[in-house]
Amino acid sequence: MWSFPLFPEKASALASSVDIVFFVWLALAGLVASTVAFLIVFFAVKYRSGSSANRETADEQAQNRINRRIEIAWMTIPLVLFMAMFAWSAEIYYDYATPPANAMVVYVVGKQWMWKLEHAGGRREIDELHVPAGRPVKLVMTSQDVIHDFFMPVFRIKQDVLPGRYTTLWFEATKPGDYQLFCSQYCGTDHSRMVGRVVVMEPAAFERWLASGNSTGSMAAQGAAHFREYGCSGCHGASASVHAPKLEGLFGRPVQLADGSTVIADDRYIHDSVLLPRKEITAGYAPIMPSFQGQITEDALLEIIEYVKSLKTAQPGEVR
Fold it and tell me: What is the spatial distance between Cα 285 and Cα 236, in angstroms, rounded to a whole number?
């Protein structure tokens, strides 16, 4: 079964759990379906028109008790089995949906028709993802245009990549090798060409690869350059004369909004503040920031977010 050519090999810590729960679900659903099918055929044949089957009940009360027991068993047993499967599946899902705190972060932008990936240190890739074996990797993903889907069969994981939103995915590769990467959501004319590969390396080899070929600096450094390029420092810089929120120490902290609500300054908040500045206006500030929608690419915006994350010098209370 494991060598069947249409069934991918397992190359992540999560893959075995996903395979087991899949086959158990398949077996359970098959058992229920085959039992129902058998009983339908059995009773259709036994009580067909003209058969000699006894249709009379000697003791109606006794028969009612038997029927009631059958109905209770038929409802209770599948309920217990499927609720147990639900609990087991939910546990695996929560493991899949909760990246470890120490996961290495890689940023992914899907666009027609390629995957653009960037490591926090600044190393960029197109249609390839290099990762170390034995270390959790968290992907932060968004789309430049339409809905894509990041799918790595050997790791048993996939996640929609959406325009204007950030979605996450994590995995821990267990063995070095080259594995396939697909877009599994139809995204236009050349959807079938939106493929790539995941290269799992030994940790030492990965560190050497990560340090080589990077002349552009870290994502935070590139974000700082974009910050100046788009004129953000004119309002949000330390010496700015415009009354605008300071960004030092902002990331991860609560922000009081003009409507009285509070949000956490996370990736999504910074993304929307740049592209949709009137969506969530910070309390005490006028809605004067222009929108950069259509002017800045998603990968450049990710670098600006990394730059904002790097500004951790503010004291509590400086940023509202």
Answer: 12
Residue pair 115/190 in contact (Cβ under 8 Å)? The answer is no
User: What number of CA atoms fall less than 13 Å from residue 30's CA on the CB side?
Assistant: 6
Bridge pairing between strands 177-183 and 195-201: antiparallel
Tens digit of pLDDT for each residue in 181-194? 999 999 999 999 99
Helix 60-97 vs helix 15-46: crossing angle, to nearest 10 = 160
Q: How does pLDDT run across 106-137, given as a tens digit for each residue?
A: 999 999 999 999 998 888 899 999 999 999 99
Residue 240: inside a domain: yes
Residues 188, 237 within the same domain:
no
Look up residue 281 and give its amino acid. Answer: I
The CATH number linked to 229 is: 1.10.760.10
Q: Establish if 285 belongs to a structural domain.
A: yes
Q: Cis before residue 25, ω within 30 degrees of 0?
A: no
